[in-house]
Specification:
Elements (H helix, E strand, L loop, with lengths): L17 E12 L2 E13 L4 E5 L6 H8 L8 E10 L2 E2 L5 H7 L4 E4 L3 H4 L6 H12 L4 H14 L5 H4 L9 H13 L5 E5 L7 H18 L2 E6 L2 H7 L2 E6 L2 E7 H6 L4 H8 L50 E2 L5 E2 L10
Parallel strand pairs: 3-8, 3-9, 6-7, 7-8
Antiparallel strand pairs: 1-2, 1-4, 4-5, 9-10, 10-12, 11-12
Helix pairs in contact: 4-5, 4-7, 5-7, 7-8
The structure holds adenosine-5'-triphosphate and magnesium ion.
Length: 339
């Protein structure tokens, strides 16, 4: 059956920059195929900031890798769905054209800046690489642009850092370099997959603030992936909550924080340290475990951890249903279904 977006969803009113529709991705494992994504759809409009949140293993990185067509091959298969970027079908685009999209129109920042940077190349060589590939600038011009970009991402003595090696920089500075590399070609979409997870709390906040500033200055769209819902409070306009390979709630950020509709979203929100909680108090962890993607229960995937589960949650597929207020929720107990 073809996926049809809900008719009244405001995110569908204009042609989005990126649209992922009904994506199903499977990995081959020793124990058989593992469906990492099962019918994932999302939209990112031009200049929009979208957040993707969920626990480890729910499929966030698989979404990002699918969009950039960087899924391991062999090893991963797209079984169904469509990915469109600015009108182009990314799943069928020839590899040559895909290379022009990757890095220039869609850029990515990964979690671990040390493994993403090449330890045997200088910072300057790595920041200028994309410029020389995509824009054919001379070395001199490329170095000038690189220094400007490093300055913009807040690297002190930017020009001198061009000749530095990755190991000479702190984790936070390396992540700034990764952001400079991602942004140097003025992408229309930045995908940041846990860009601050490896950093200490203060540096995390600085990097997120930097990403927010640059996103606005450059007018690019951003898809920020994180397991930490708190990270999205300041950054995202729309949030998609994923659980075990599916989107369980999609909502404008203020609604998600003020009135989360899915029990899993509520549990995620409750696990954020709040001003009310005394410092150092233990956060309520979400009880139970994420189900094994190879042997999922019938019905809702969150049923074994859900505090409000009823018998009907254990029968049949639970659809993602639109609410009247711009969000969609995958829960039969969500009361305010749109007419
Ligand atoms: N190359 C692979 N081969 C087999 N299984 C994989 C592979 N990559 C991911 N998976 C599995 O697919 C599921 C989704 O993984 P994914 O990395 O997309 O999750 P994630 O939400 O990004 O997790 P994390 O927060 O830990 O980064 C997990 O169950 C994971 O074990
Ligand atoms: Mg991941």
């Amino acid at each position: 059956m073809r996926y049809r977006p809900p008719a009244h969803d405001p995110m569908h009113d204009t042609e989005p920059l990126l649209s992922v529709d009904d994506l199903v991705v499977s990995y081959d494992t020793d124990d058989g195929p593992l469906r990492a994504l099962d019918g994932v759809s999302l939209r990112v409009a031009k200049g929009q900031r979208v957040g993707l949140v969920g626990e480890s293993g729910c499929g966030k990185s698989t979404v990002a890798l699918s969009v950039l067509r960087l899924l391991p091959s062999p090893g991963a298969r797209v079984l169904r769905g469509a990915i469109r970027f600015d009108g182009q079908d990314l799943l069928t685009l020839p590899e040559r054209s895909m290379r022009a999209v990757r890095g220039r129109r869609v850029s990515m920042v990964f979690q671990e800046p040390m493994t993403s940077l090449n330890p045997v190349c200088t910072i300057g060589a790595q920041v200028t690489e994309a410029l020389t590939i995509h824009h054919r600038l001379s070395r001199r011009e490329a170095r000038a642009r690189a220094a400007e970009m490093l300055d913009r991402v807040g690297l002190p003595n930017a020009r001198r850092q061009l000749d530095a090696w990755p190991h000479q920089l702190s984790g936070g500075m390396r992540q700034r370099v990764m952001i400079a590399i991602a942004l140097i070609c003025n992408p229309e979409l930045l995908i940041a997959d846990e860009p601050t997870t490896a950093l200490d709390v203060t540096t995390q906040a600085q990097i997120l603030e930097l990403l927010g500033h640059l996103q606005q200055q450059l007018g690019m769209a951003a898809l920020l992936i994180t397991h930490d819902l708190a990270v999205l409070a300041e950054f995202a306009q729309t949030v998609l909550v994923m659980y075990a390979g599916q989107v369980v709630e999609q909502a404008p950020v203020d609604l998600l924080f003020s009135a989360p509709a899915h029990p899993y979203s509520r549990a995620l929100l409750e696990s954020i340290p709040s001003c009310a909680a005394p410092r150092g108090s233990r956060l309520p962890a979400i009880p139970g475990r994420v189900p094994d993607l190879r042997s999922l229960p019938v019905g809702c995937r969150f049923q074994d951890r859900c505090p409000v589960v009823v018998e009907a949650c254990r029968t049949g597929e639970i659809p993602l249903r639109p609410f009247g207020d711009g969000r969609s929720v995958r829960c039969i107990l969500s009361p305010r279904e749109a007419p």
